[in-house]
Prior knowledge:
alpha+beta; four-stranded mixed beta sheet; 16% helix
Amino acid sequence: xxxxIGAESAAVGSxxxxxxxxxxxxxxxxxxxxxxxxxxxxxxxxxxxxRAVAFYGEVFGWTSEDWTEYTGMPYFGxxxxxxMGIDGAIMQRQGEDPAVGGPVAGGVLTMGVxxxxxxxxxxxxxxxxxxxxxxxxxxxxxxxxxxxxxNNVFGIHQPDPExx
Length: 164
């Protein structure tokens, strides 16, 4: 299920992009400020990282590369796609996965989707569960939250100016 993603150093919003030998896009962004609080990487913790990699690959099409040899623990670099957005990693949780219904034990990531209902169906079919049902952000989008197979909470967000 995993595949190599190559090295990437793309800056969000840059238009000066070129392809490398590995197929990854790189960009130069001398005016980019990496200390303004914008996300540049994420880590999802899981007691079974390979299961989490499979889940996010099936649901969102993320690709991964095993970086365990560099970190000394199960650690998979993930590429979420091309264009605007961030990449990150799925790594070994130091302890058990949190229980469903318990407090959030980490950051909550929200992924943009084109079709909320189709994404929700894919999540549920892949073994995810609903944490908070779909609701309207009036005039902006549809939003909802799910648990992955390690009980991490994540959101999905479908832009829709007609949401009510």
